[in-house]
Amino acid sequence: MASTDAPPLDANRYRQDFPILSSVLHGDQPLVYLDNAATTQRPRCVIEKIVEVYERQYANVHRGIHWLSDQSTDLFEEAREKTRRFINAPLREEVIFTTGATGAINLVARSWGDANLQAGDEILVTEMEHHSNLVPWHQLAERSGCRVKFIPITDEGRLDLEQLPALLTEKTKLVAFTAVSNVLGTINPVVEIVEQAHQAGALALVDAAQSAPHGRNDVQAWNADFVAFSGHKMLAPSGVGILYGRASLLDAMPPFLGGGSMIHRVTMDGFEPAELPAKFEAGTPPIVSAIGLGAAIDYLEDIGVDNIHHYAQMLTQQAHDVLEEVGGVRFFGPPPAEKAGIVSFTLEGIHAHDVAQILDQYGVAIRAGHHCAMPLHKRLGVAASNRASFYFYNTPEEIDALADGLRAAKRVFRR
Ligand code: PLP
Hints:
It is built from 14 helices and 17 strands. The model has no long low-confidence stretch (mean pLDDT 96). The strands form five sheets. Strands 4-10-9-8-7-5-6 form a seven-stranded mixed sheet, with helices on both faces. Helix 2 (44-57) runs antiparallel to helix 10 (287-303) and helix 3 (67-87) crosses helix 10 (287-303). It has helices spanning 11-15, 44-57, 67-87, 101-116, 135-144, 164-167, 190-199, 219-222, 247-252, 287-303, 305-326, 352-361, 374-380, 396-412; strands at residues 24-25, 29-30, 32-33, 95-98, 122-126, 147-151, 172-178, 203-207, 226-230, 241-245, 263-266, 271-273, 329-332, 342-347, 364-365, 367-369, 385-389. By secondary structure, it is α/β, with parallel strands linked by helices. The chain is 39% helix and 17% strand. The longest helix is centred in the C-terminal third of the chain and has 22 residues, at 305-326. Pyridoxal-5'-phosphate binds next to helix 4. Pyridoxal-5'-phosphate binds at residues 100-102, 130, 132-133, 178, 182, 207, 209-210, 230, 241, 372.
């Protein structure tokens, strides 16, 4: 066990809430689910909430003048309010339901980006971005002629912020960066980066897809202009995500998708957009997934986001310790204390996919590949890596099972 003081969190107690975690694979291997950075599992309370809504409270929202639609609308708006509190957004209008972090970032690129950027302007991202916070800016560059520049990382897997002042110029319109790297696990200094972006006259977009499940995400403390994250990485159903945007910015932005719900009035000649948040929620929204997100937030807040963060860090430290003992493991990213529950590595002489396949025979689920971060892998000098990612329902015994699986892989490949 790691030397870190044990936090007040009983993983075995919480595991009881997750039916899928008692799965047995390949006949006799208990599931060891260590792919939480890809997506987390759902507790019974979220699953039951979904069933309850579909069985008793489901209709389209904001439309029907009938009892069932009122029920559904109330639950949907309650979920928005829970989300607002969770990220400490000042106003409910600033919380937009999207399809996920990807949907949220694309919304900003298409709406704010198309309206505000032109040839010669610059967008600053980092070398550790997920493709979701990279490709939309490349696409914007293709449309507008603006340029995408990169904050480099150090060999230790931190952002090289010494370069930031020189990279920020009067042409920089946006700094878009991840709060936590989905590969390196690095926890970035959000407040510092936002502050420097603002001092240079740029806006700041925070990709909180990996930080939202792991601790405090206070958009006011961050002073961020836009924040994007996904429900499915924090116990909620897939298909729902959040864009937080400063009201003054969202107000000035044109709608992205057109259709029902996002209009105030439509005529033969055109339309007037609705007020926030409806302006950015065209069509039928992810009603039940959003309500499920509300239930997930209740559950996470009951456990305590700080407890979750400390516990995941303890598992991260343990993973470093036991994987070190396996031998031949190359870790990526900074020391465990600077990571949020994500440990990426390669096992000497064995392809990442082979490692993951052998682990799967032992019931251990991890990720292999480039994890939607190809530029980062190029910088690391590898085509692929393995990634184990932890959540509060993982146990120290599961980290040991990961190490045992790696030993087995070494035996198979005689390494
Ligand atoms: N940003 C980061 C850092 C991620 O890890 C991910 C997903 O892995 C995303 C964005 C995209 O999230 P989604 O696929 O839910 O839109």
